[in-house]
User: Fold these one by one.
Assistant:
Number 1:
Amino acid sequence: MKRKNHNNRQVELPNFCHLGVSLRIALTVEAALVAGVVARVPDAPAFWTEFIALSALAQPALLLTLLALCAAGRWLRSQPYRLGVGATLVLGMAVPVLATLWMGPLLAGSVQIPLGGVSLFALLIGAGLLAYFNLRARALSPAITEARLQALQARIRPHFLFNSLNAVLSLVRSDPRRAEHALENMADLFRALMGNASQLAPLEDEVALTRAYLELEQLRLGDRLQVAWHIKKMPGDALIPPLVIQPLVENAVYHGIEPQPGGGEISLNIYRSADKVHIVVRNPIATDPGHHKGNRIALANIRERLLLHFDLDAQLKLEPLGAVYQVHIVIPYTRERTQPSAARPHRR
Amino acid sequence: MNAPNPPLRVLIVDDEAPARLRLRDVLADCSAELPVDIVGEAENGLDALNQVQQQPVDAVLLDIRMPGMDGLECAAHLNRMTAPPAIIFSTAYDAYACQAFDLNAVDYLLKPVRVDRLVRALSRAHRLNSVALDQLREAHPKARTHLSVNEKGRIVLIPVEDILYLKAELKYVTVCTAAREFLIEESLTRLESEFGEAFLRIHRNCLVASARIREIGKLPGEDDGHFLRLDGLEERLMVSRRQYSALRDKLKSL
């Protein structure tokens, strides 16, 4: 039900407060300014005089417009699409025009700026950008995004699956309770792996999943795998794409722990700082030379999924710190808004 | 029928304790069909080599993926023994290795192991053909952690990080470490491709450990020859004119 609504959703206005959106608007306006000046002036020195004079007005106007769009964003998006587009265009024209009226006298003499020109420039750029955002929203329409997300869905390494099954089998006779618990963990893990990758899920669910995964690995690796959790300041209700932390930790085990005879420690540090959620996973760098391939694929996969969900507001950084390899993810802190998710299976 | 046969002496090698336990259970299950005496367990290749030399072993159940010395390298060293044990590889999942095993008729088990598969593998266990082993290692190119020689029936392991240089002499290669020299029956070209950047060629017949290079100097006299000195080695090694510029470029990039 929920998913169907999701698919038929109308195209929406972009969220003007998002970094990616503001950046696209700003860059387009700057490019148009440069193009406009180049068309009007004959040579390079004249270009700079003209560009600087025009910028004195255009830059504050652009900034004010972006602020106004962000402030009005929620209201604009709550209107029907056509009305929202109209209101956005009016706002996008009104702010620069008002800025010109206000600042024009201050800049008097340097360049003559006709109000009509400002409104026409703002209208054309605004219409062009809205058309672009409309096309982009369609290209990233839920159906297509969902298909891409499903294709990108993390897959478990077969090596891990069979070794875990083998470990569980070894426990069936000697320690049936641990075997049961291990199978429960495997069930949770596979449910998540086969689940819907396109919907955000609470961080605490992902952490529970990662714990289940690590318990299975600890079964096989014993003392070789040490885990340090630093999640006291974790916002459990933050929404993140599913299967972002678990594959990172799987990588950490596969590349940092398994190749070392003595094993090592993986540390997970999850916290909120202002309106961002930080996820930091560290593992020792293996000294084994024949063992460093395949890492990039999982990371590229996670990076693309973060991009699809959060555009430029999320980051994934790789930081080799001496003998330690660190992956640092930053995503915006968002919470479930209205509907409580009744459909999601309960996880321990 | 097979009552007079003594039990088969088996060594279990796997880095994961549950996997070793599981093999013990399955071996116990098949004791009626095939009497087996588990002589020990090892958690890596080095440990396995050690144990095989302490006591007679008929067959080794050898995991492929292990930290440190892996199963394929361990098998290569075991095969230097005068009477090597039979080797049965085990792996949880390894598409390439299994393909290579099938091609070379090498015994292997897929984990989790089934009783009937284990009985079949053990009852026809035989020593590993060295040609087949070479082909397996080519399918799984990974540099060895040790070189090995058979000295009076014992396997002597030479850690690769202890090696100063390798010098080809007629049919043999001399392996020089700070402590002593060994003769091994391998080709210098193959050693060069196996170890890549770790050893650099300074002469048609000589590879040196790149981490040990201390200095390169010019020989006195009008001849434009060069010599090279290694940490922990008194003697100077000659650098051939052909290799000198390539060597200099490689050292710069390292």
Number 2:
Amino acid sequence: MVGMSIGEELLEERRRRRRAGDPRITPEGRAILARLVDGDLVGEFQAALDAVSAADPLLGGGGDDDDIAG
Amino acid sequence: MIVIDEYLAVRVVFARWPAGLPDEELALPSSRHWRLLQALHNPRGGQLSQILAPLSEPDRSALRWPHPEVLQILDPRPLLDKAAQVAAGYGGTGWLVAESLAAGLAYGRELYFGTEQNVGHLLARAAGELGIAVHVAT
């Protein structure tokens, strides 16, 4: 088995930290955020994002809803 | 560097890395961070307000000031000129679409979204014409 170089080890460590997420997130926060982007609140979350764009023509451009979305 | 949307930003912050997302450094355009922050600070709708209210200060901090090893917020200044050019070319898109497209052009001609709903018709059409691949990673 070939060992990793120092550069490879550093890259692997950065990769590991990136995929580990933010250490400040609590288990309770993780559960809430999961509902927001993957669970029952996805519709409300998307509506909230769209509402921010719709309320600001500089941001959203003043197009129809589909255009504002993204 | 991979440019992502608000959904993927939230997912990687709480360590749910989508299977279809390349294992590279991630960046969120400033306009999309703005929308996320607005939803966090001023959640419209009763249920969303109630759900977000119990988020602890450390949880909020992770979204307000993402750890750069997890998620970077793109500096909008180098993207301004290209974004203005794109906006002019498409009849005055808003900053959200223009910055996202400019970021896509600057970073590998790719954009990653966490849901199809968040792409939008105008961005999808413009991305196709500008040679930017739009991916949905769930």
Number 3:
Amino acid sequence: MVEVINHHSHAAITDLHARYSRKLLGYFIRMLNHDTELAQDFVQEIFLKILEKKHLYDPSKKFYTWIFTIASNMCKTEFRKPFSTSISADEYELTTRAGLGEDLLEKQRFNALLEKSLQQLELHHKTVFVLRYIELFSLQEIAEITDTSLGTVKSRLFYATRKMTAQLKAYDPRYENNLFKMN
Amino acid sequence: MDPLLNPEEIRLLELLESKDFDALTAEERVFVATQLPAAEYVLQRRILTGIDRQEDEIPQPRPLALPSEKSAIPLLRRTVPLYQAVLAIAAVWTCFFWLWPNERPADMPQQIVSADTIPTSSAQAEQTPQIVHDTVVRYVPVYQSTGKTPQQADLPESFQKADNYQATSAVLRGTELRSTLPLSALTPENIATSGTSLKEDQLSFLVPDIRDFQRR
């Protein structure tokens, strides 16, 4: 990164692209509701932004954290445009496929619901959830990326998980039954 | 905005992130039971750990398309540090006053023109004053004592017979001179009033006599 800052060399930015582009693409795909084309555009754009804003980089901090800060801000800007998704009752049946084992089916079904409930979270909840449990950042790093306090990050994680739990319970009666039994 | 977590909620979050329900100690299970049902703990734990990272499903990113090295970033999209912008503005400001200093000669002629005259000949047009600039000049009046009081000889003819006091007053009321009659015009014929006096008026009985009021 220091080389990019100092020499603005294409070789260095290409190297950064090779190192981080896939990770960023995965993040963008998830944050942009699985719009792969838009996510590909965002990956291109983020590397141009790195060249533009190279003077804003603080070498005392991790480059990986900084690049995700830019990515997070890009998603925030994008999400100001309204969109809507919702889990329909049909989604519940969508993942049932013939020929798969019961466990695998159940796992796929659960993952599909989980993914849908993640897409329904508000942006600030979704951001911390993805950064924590998918990109595996530490709480402190998430606080830096989202420019918030550690307490806020914990709070957002806690309530994001609660909201997802409520949605999954509503669409999977088994959890309601289990809760009833255990109570 | 989410409220900040209390210590119990923070502990619960830490447990959710670190341990399955089966791995909890007896004390931790009791603590969890005070916060939420065990099935919900299991579900939340599954949400946190079970989300599919789908790394193999992420497609290959497109090759990076960089603009040419010389014009990597368009001029209008280029960003500069704040101090450079401030320095640039200061430099422009300095150059401006260096090239066009804000000075005007003290003896610069000023002509104030009334624009209601239309020249009818070329000679008149040449004589027509031109507007030099549109600066509004505030004239500061300076009063100078001439050390001379108006004398009778300085007065208009019509006032030569009046005394000094009257003449001075008349001069100070210069604008009134034009509407003042000369003394020679003040003949009995000219100053005679016209109309009927109250004493001779037949309708005077309608006017109340103020002497009646005074008596009361």
